[in-house]
Amino acid sequence: MRVVTKILWFCLWLPLLNPQIGETAPRAAIIVGIDDYPEESNIPDLQLAARDAQNVSDFLKQRGYQRYTLINDEATRENLKAGIDTFAKNAMQAPFELVIFYFSGRGSRIPDERMPPDEEDGYDECLLLSDAKANEAETYLRDDELLQWLARIQTDVVLIVLDCSFRGHPGDASVKGFGSVTGDALDGVSPVKEGDVASLQNALVLSASEPDKDAIDGVLTPALLTTLETEAADISGDRRLSVSEIQQHLKGLLTGKQKTQIFDPWQLDPVLVVLPPLPTLQVTSNPSGAEVFIRPAERGRIEPPRNRPRGPLPPPDRVGRRRPARTPLQLALKKGRYYVRVQKSGFRRPPPQEIELTEYDTAYTLEPFTLQPIGVHGTVRDSRGNPVDNLSVQFRQNGNIMNQRSIGDDGIFHLSLEQDNWLQLAQEYSITVIGRQVLNTEAKTFVLAGYEDIHLPITVTLDITAPQLMRVDFSASRTAPDPNLLLPGDDVSITIIASDDGLGVESASLALGQSGNNERLHLEPHAVDGVEKSDQVKSYVFRHAIIASPSAIEKWTVVQIELRDKAGNSHLYRANEINIRFTVFPDPVALGQSYFEKEAYTKALTAFGLAEVQTDRGRYMTALAHDALKSTHKAVETFLTITDQRQYLASHPSDLPAAPRSLINKLWGHYLDGLPQNRRNPDHLELLAVTAEALNRHDQAKLYSEYREHLLSRKNRKSR
Q1: How far apart are CA 186 and CA 182, in angstroms?
Q2: DSSP string computed for 396-449
């Protein structure tokens, strides 16, 4: 009575419960689930079939399907046929788009009653409803009969879902088959044969297992319901799960358990459910145009790449499209937790954000990403790692100077897109460190095409060593008798050779000083020459002309030499490091006398010979020098050229040495030899007297003096 009441209620109220019935009625489902077979049927019970059927019914209700559900004792042949007839009647007014027939229970195989059989193996597949009896084949629902019932419903597609199998398994009641027909009798095509389906050309059969395999209680339906709500089953991505997509996903879920099969000779592929609209995620940034990267949380947090080479790297997940999506972006995503990050060339990557999408058809918005422009941070240090100052960095592009700025005392400089409007994205720039002391600098280039600040450590080699004095040469225009003993009219030439291991020698200066005088005479180079054409070694020539005749001997010294290189380093050399001295004499005689005093008689003679006008003083010293060199004849000969010989024999100048006795003896002999010709010559007699006195021949000196006086008195008397 309870079953009849349910059928009547279904037939009367179905059009009222769902207005689509009788109008459009797009989809319907007939759901049968039996696990509690009557005891008298001698058919073993199942455990989960009724639960699975109820779950299918509840699921399809939520999806808008019109349902007719029969569970356990309700699932009789009569009730099933009545429900199908009701659907067929309503479909006459508005055909269905899809009708699902779902069965979860036991199946079996019995000989085909048709003659000749329409099955190649001679057996019909059967469903065991709640009023079936084990030994009464007429109580089985054959596949031929089921398809005839379903064929009366006007619909585009009939999907038959069979969560059962068609052979028994002694000792294992969980196998959803019944009967003794072995696998050898199965044709291996489908539990519902092609001949059966011919009467229902729009039918599609989804079987729990292959024809000759077992279906286990509670396996197919839970996997099917999971698939109908699984995003991963939507292979096409259109949110519409078709039978082929469902079958593909079921294969993966049931791997190692049982293998489902679709029998579809006409390649039907209806859509069973439409997944609800995905949640959407809105991503914005300031500035806009940033690339968006999204990664599911189970794959791990998105972290910016570390130790990146110059230039951008392809990021991990570029929102599944060839060209990167850019902000502002609104994107449909599956439910779940996501890590989102953005990046824009020339801007620092902001920290990733995390968000969980929990509801379908819901818009989610992330906090706007704030992008800070990247900067170029440079540190300039010398080869020993010390920061440098008083230098500048110069930025070039294609050889053109774009900018130049000084480096701070800490050796650091900064650039940014915000402050340096000459910087352009994706352009390459080169950096040069310039300054007076820069000997060499490390080459650096950068491109503002990344997402992190650029750090540029630059090493420079500085020229911090002053030039060195290699050699100092002194010469004079008059080479005899000695280059550092000079006379008025001579030219002094001082040549210095300096070296610098850095940028090269730039300048040199020289100062002369006179003994006893604090004044300095600063000389500029007369000539400069790069030795072997190199700035690292240079030769400087300084000249000084001695013009005025000094009243006394002057002693000069090179008191300092200052060298300076191109880096600004200088070195001052003092007199004791240079050791260049020279003496200026007022005349050649003074020069010769200095040689004479040093017993350099030959040089003395050379010096005396430099005098343009000979004087008695010079002749006297020349005679002394010849005598010292044992050239007595030349000594006498020179002495005799003295105008006032008597003076240099009797009382020579106090600053001159006395004539040696050897020379006076020679002169005494010379004067005696000339006496016969000069008997009446008072001057000659005076020379004899003076010479005799110099030789301590006092008697003879007196004799010649008296004789001279006698001659002079006679001359005086005659003149009167």
Answers
A1: 7
A2: EETTEEEEEEEPPTTSEEEEETTT-TT--TT-EEEEEEE-TTEEEE--EEEES-
Contact call for residues 509 and 519 (beta carbons, < 8 A):
no
Three-state secondary structure call for residue 231: helix
**CA–CA gap between residue 220 and residue 228 (Å, rounded):** 12
Q: 564-573 burial by CB neighbour count: b if 16+ within 10 A, else e? A: bbbbebebeb
Query: Closest by alpha carbon to 575, among 516, 510, 524?
Result: 510
Of 247, 166, 158, 257, give the one whose Cα is nearest residue 204: 158
Residue 61: CB atoms within 10 Å = 13
Biggest CA–CA distance in the chain, Å, is 210
* Distances in whole angstroms, Cα of residue 350 to Cα of each of 159, 316, 342, 353: 52, 16, 7, 9
For residues 124 and 202, is the Cβ–Cβ distance under 8 A?
no
**54 in helix, strand or coil?**
helix
- Phi, then psi, of 449 in degrees rounded to 5: -130, 15
Cα–Cα distance for residue pair 588/243, rounded to 1 Å: 131
CB 429 within 8 A of CB 445: yes
- pLDDT value for 248: 94
Residue 191 tokens read as: 């539990």
**If 0-12 CB within 10 Å is exposed, 13-18 middle and 19+ buried, where does residue 643 land?**
exposed
Low-confidence ranges of the chain (pLDDT < 70): 1-25, 114-121, 181-199, 265-266, 299-322, 479-480, 533, 720
Angle at CA of residue 709, ends 704 and 712, nearest 5°: 125
Nearest to 269 by CA among 243, 241, 302, 230: 243
For the stretch 205-254, pLDDT in tens is 999 998 778 999 999 999 999 999 988 899 988 899 999 999 999 999 99
| Structural contact between residues 211 and 187, judged by C-beta atoms closer than 8 angstroms | yes
Chain centroid to Cα 251, Å, comes to: 50
Count of Cβ atoms closer than 10 Å to residue 536 Cβ:
17
Beta strands in 351-391 (DSSP E): 353-357, 363-365, 369-370, 375-382
Amino acid at 551: S
C-alpha–C-alpha distance, residues 293 and 577, integer Å: 74
Q: Cα separation of 532 and 497, whole Å?
A: 12
| Closest C-alpha to 448, from 431, 430, 425, 429 | 425
In which region does residue 399 sit, left (phi positive, over 0), alpha (psi from -120 to 50) or beta (all else)? left
Question: What pLDDT is recorded for position 39?
Answer: 94
Distance CA 349, CA 308 (A): 13
CA dist., res. 556 & res. 539, Å (int) = 23
Tokens 């002194």 -> residue: 474
Asked if 584 and 546 touch (Cβ cutoff 8 Å), the reply is: yes
